[in-house]
């Protein structure tokens, strides 16, 4: 399973998403669409910008790998398995190392190439979009529920 | 080198996921600990959800938090100003803001503690050190920060009794000396590092995240009302207005829901009746063609039954049309767009059904007056058919065509009704927009436009109320 990480934790969110089962399928489709719009507007640019500005020489390739995911909650995928670097590395291979370097790794994994040793902590530079994105998405959720719950 | 997999970053997840995956804590994620279950839940969704409930919940929490924060800042600012440290307010606020994250103690607890200590120490720098010491002592002794900072403050004032009662392990001689350097040295020796250790535990981590979440919510509120008006009364009014908006919006949502359901039920009923009539008419036609005297009597019964069905349908159509007429006369101006086509469709349905009922009555009478003829094959039956029976067959054919037209009109009317409900929902959700009221109060440069924020909110609430009244009246008067 692909690793997941979450920007914010909202109490009761699962209940809200579960309740969409009581609405017509179109409501869930609209939710996915609205979530894509929010992710496209807030999340993807923020992650691309952080990668370019803070992830060192690998930043542009990582930024190019940021894709909006089609889901009920706004989400982006970062990384990819295709070889993008001259040495044969993929964006996924360098994503973690550019951020953390060899910190928190043990044994043979600790022997990261010299260029990655310190890490750049670029992932921690991204979260500024949370407030606006969450507010906009919450409004979209309201509108969709309002539209479909009375039919 | 591990190849790994593509990382997926989600904007939000349920709090339960956080409890399952504490490892995310180091990436600056935030928790909205305020439960939304009471605001949005499956039951409420079934009944028609409050417009703006999810978004407004964040906004109202934020406004409340911003209001509290402003009061606390004002209090501390006044103390600093009175003590001659007004120019250090910003530095103190930054110190407290940083400390709340490193010590996992909210700024709401830190500000009063600092306020107390700066009053007694008479020095911002010493108050900062004393506050850090108070945090260590608080964690070490299990006493509240308020109690410890009060005791420390009293000690600086010369009364060390409260400090002795904290159980901090300071000997009586040191306490009696009132030497704050010696007392602080002893306290530091005993409790140094307690606060930091506590902040670095899992529980401390959770607390830090909660603080970050609260600060984020607070930021929403600050953005919403911060520049609007600095008076606390105005903020109180804004909070009150937004709180009023939620039930008003919910009321409108529920009324839209029940109105739409009632009207659509009426439309469904029409279509069912038309279907029933459609199947009955073929029975009637068959009976007329192959009919004997008994069969014709049966046909008469069927026709009477059909007539009754149409009478009932016609009555329902009349009621729906009349209530729509009244409702539009009452609330047309506020609704913006009215479902004229739906109204016209139902009205013409009504007229058409009346005509059909009259013709069916004629049919019934004619069938009852005809008759004769025994059984036999199709040819014989047709030969026996008198001109009156042929006329009945022609009439049934006409009725078929009329019913088809009626069905078509009803389908159009139903579509119009759905469109209207959609537009109503759209108007309500776009009409109730706190952000719009906020934006209208300021121009692009952030200067006041002269339009009151509170008035903007209240106007939206009033409009929501008019919608609610209008729809309530529709419900009480219309529908089958």
Describe the structure using short key phrases.
heterodimer, A: 151 residues, mainly alpha, two-stranded antiparallel ribbon, 5 helices, B: 480 residues, 19 helices, 2 strands, 78% helix, 2% strand
Mean pLDDT of chain A: 80
Query: What's the alpha carbon Rg of chain B, rounded to whole Å?
Result: 38 Å
**Spatial shape of chain B:** elongated
Overall mean pLDDT of chain B = 60
Element order of chain A: H for helix, E for strand? EHHHEEHH
Q: Which stretches of chain A are low in confidence, meaning pLDDT under 50 for 5 or more residues running?
A: none
How many whole angstroms does the radius of gyration of chain A measure?
A: 18 Å
Which strand order do you get reading across the main beta sheet of chain A? 2-3
Please provide the count of β strands of chain B.
2
Name the chain pair whose interface involves the most residues. Answer: A-B, 68 and 64 residues
Tell me roughly what share of residues is in helical segments of chain B.
Answer: over 70%
Structural class of chain A: mainly alpha
Helix fraction of chain A? 40-55%
Write the H/E string of chain B, N to C. Answer: EHEHHHHHHHHHHHHHHHHHH
Q: In total, how many beta strands of chain A?
A: 3
What's the quaternary structure here? heterodimer
Taken together, the total number of domains of chain A comes to 1
The count of domains of chain B is 2
Which band does the percent of strand residues of chain B land in? under 5%
Main β-sheet description of chain A = 2 strands, antiparallel
Overview of this protein structure:
Chain A is mainly α and 151 residues long. Chain A has one domain (26-148). Chain A has helices at 13-19, 25-54, 59-64, 91-100, 130-148; strands spanning 4-10, 67-69, 75-78. Chain A has a two-stranded antiparallel ribbon with strand order 2-3. The longest helix of chain A is centred in the N-terminal third of the chain and has 30 residues, at 25-54. Chain A is elongated, with a radius of gyration of 18 Å. The model of chain A has no long low-confidence stretch (mean pLDDT 80). By secondary structure, chain B is mainly alpha-helical. Chain B has two domains: 61-226, no CATH class; 235-477. Chain B is built from 19 helices and two strands. At the A-B interface, strand 1, helix 1, helix 2, strand 3 and helix 4 of A face strand 1, helix 1, strand 2, helix 2 and helix 3 of B.
């Amino acid at each position: 399973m692909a690793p997941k990480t979450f920007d914010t934790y909202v109490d009761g969110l699962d209940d809200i998403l579960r309740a969409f089962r009581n609405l017509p399928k179109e409501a869930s489709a609209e939710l996915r669409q609205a979530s894509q719009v929010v992710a496209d507007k807030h999340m993807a640019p923020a992650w691309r910008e952080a990668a370019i500005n803070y992830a060192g020489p690998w930043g542009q390739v990582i930024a190019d790998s940021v894709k909006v995911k089609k889901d009920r909650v706004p989400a982006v995928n970062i990384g990819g398995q295709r070889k993008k670097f001259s040495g044969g590395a993929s964006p996924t291979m360098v994503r973690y190392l550019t951020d953390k370097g060899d910190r928190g790794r043990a044994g043979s994994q600790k022997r990261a190439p010299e260029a990655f040793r310190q890490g750049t902590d670029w992932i921690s530079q991204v979260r500024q979009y949370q407030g606006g994105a969450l507010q906009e998405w919450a409004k979209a959720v309201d509108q969709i529920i309002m539209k479909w719950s009375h039919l | 080198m591990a190849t790994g997999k593509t990382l997926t970053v989600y904007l939000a997840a349920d709090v339960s996921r956080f409890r399952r995956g504490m490892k995310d804590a180091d990436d600056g994620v935030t928790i909205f600990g305020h439960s939304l279950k009471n605001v949005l839940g499956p039951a409420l969704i079934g009944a028609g959800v409050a417009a703006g409930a999810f978004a407004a919940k964040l906004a109202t929490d934020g406004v409340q938090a911003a209001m509290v924060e402003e009061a606390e800042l004002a209090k501390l600012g006044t103390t600093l100003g009175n003590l001659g440290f007004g120019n250090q307010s910003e530095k103190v606020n930054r110190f407290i803001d940083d400390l709340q994250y490193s010590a996992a103690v909210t700024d709401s607890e830190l500000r009063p503690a600092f306020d107390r200590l700066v009053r007694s120490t008479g020095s911002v720098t010493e108050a900062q050190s004393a506050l850090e010491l108070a945090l260590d002592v608080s964690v070490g002794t299990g006493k509240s920060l308020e109690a410890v900072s009060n005791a420390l403050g009293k000690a600086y004032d010369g009364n060390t009794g409260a400090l002795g009662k904290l159980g901090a392990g300071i000997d009586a001689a040191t306490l009696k000396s009132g030497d704050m350097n010696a007392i602080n040295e002893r306290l530091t020796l005993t409790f140094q590092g307690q606060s930091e250790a506590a902040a670095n535990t899992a529980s401390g981590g959770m607390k830090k995240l909660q603080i970050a979440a609260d600060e984020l919510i607070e930021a929403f509120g600050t953005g919403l009302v911060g520049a609007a008006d600095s008076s606390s009364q105005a903020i109180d009014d804004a909070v009150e207005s937004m709180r009023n908006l939620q039930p008003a919006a919910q009321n409108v949502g529920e009324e839209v829901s029940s109105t739409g359901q009632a009207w659509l039920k009426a439309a469904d009923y029409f279509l069912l009746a038309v279907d029933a009539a459609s199947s009955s008419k073929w029975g009637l036609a068959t009976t007329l063609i192959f009919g004997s005297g008994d069969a014709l009597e049966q046909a008469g019964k069927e026709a009477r039954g059909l007539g009754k069905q149409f009478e009932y349908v016609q009555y329902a159509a009349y009621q729906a049309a009349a209530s729509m007429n009244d409702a539009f006369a009452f609330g047309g101006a506020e609704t913006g767009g009215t479902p004229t086509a739906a109204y016209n469709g139902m009205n013409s349905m009504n007229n058409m059904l009346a005509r059909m009922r009259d013709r069916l009555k004629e049919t019934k009478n004619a069938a009852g007056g005809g008759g004769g003829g025994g059984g036999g094959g199709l040819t014989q039956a047709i030969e026996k058919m008198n001109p009156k029976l042929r006329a009945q067959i022609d009439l049934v054919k006409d009725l078929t065509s009329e019913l088809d037209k009626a069905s078509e009109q009803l389908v159009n009317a139903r579509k119009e009704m759905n469109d209207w409900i959609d537009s109503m929902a759209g108007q309500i959700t776009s009409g109730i927009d706190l952000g719009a009221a906020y934006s209208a109060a300021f121009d692009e440069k952030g200067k006041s436009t002269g339009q009151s924020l509170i008035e903007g909110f209240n106007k939206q609430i009033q409009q929501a109320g008019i919608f609610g009244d209008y729809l309530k009246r529709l419900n009480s008067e219309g529908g089958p």
